[in-house]
Design brief:
alpha+beta; 4 helices; single chain; two-stranded antiparallel sheet; 5-stranded antiparallel β-sheet
């Protein structure tokens, strides 16, 4: 049985520790400097938006505020201090139970300083190729596949062509 984290009751427009059930590999689509959507402050935040549309089936993936620690991690992973360069990057987001917020220690999201290893799907990886085809036939796109593995553009086109035969 799935359990509900108590923080789910405090609906937030941002990804939070209550949303994750374990380390999660996500693809940063872009990072922008945005006003606080909670309307609690007029502050601007580095905000990561992800390629993946859902965290789990039926649960929309929200953008993530990047605090100084997570911003610094993205700077190190990309080799650039500019948020415009922090795109199309696979990262592992996890819950750290020991994040300092003022004088308090609480759960918070962290981006792992290690880039996740991502499987690559090609026609030579027969079982993965067949599973990717099944996902494409089921979903009509490769979003779920590309959230978990990489494929060259040419292989994506070949797979789609095979599915349309």
């Amino acid at each position: 049985m799935d359990k509900t984290h108590f923080r789910k009751a405090f609906d937030s427009p941002y990804l939070s520790s209550a949303d994750l059930v374990g380390p999660t590999v996500l693809t940063v689509a872009r990072v922008t400097l945005e006003k606080d959507r909670t309307k609690k402050t007029q502050d601007l935040f580095n905000t990561a938006h992800f390629v993946e549309r859902e965290l789990r089936p039926g649960e929309t993936l929200k953008p993530m505020i990047l605090n100084a620690t997570n911003s610094n991690t993205l700077k190190k992973l990309t080799g650039s201090p500019f948020i415009e360069d922090w795109q199309n990057l696979k990262v592992t987001v996890y819950v750290d139970p020991n994040v300092r917020f003022g004088k308090e220690v609480m759960e918070g999201l962290r981006i792992s300083p290690k880039a996740p290893t991502v499987a690559s799907i090609t026609p030579a990886t027969v079982k993965a190729w067949q599973n990717a085809k099944a996902a494409y036939m089921r979903d009509g796109n490769l979003d779920a596949v590309l959230a978990r593995a990489s494929m060259t553009e040419a292989d994506q086109q070949q797979l789609i062509a095979e599915c349309r035969k």
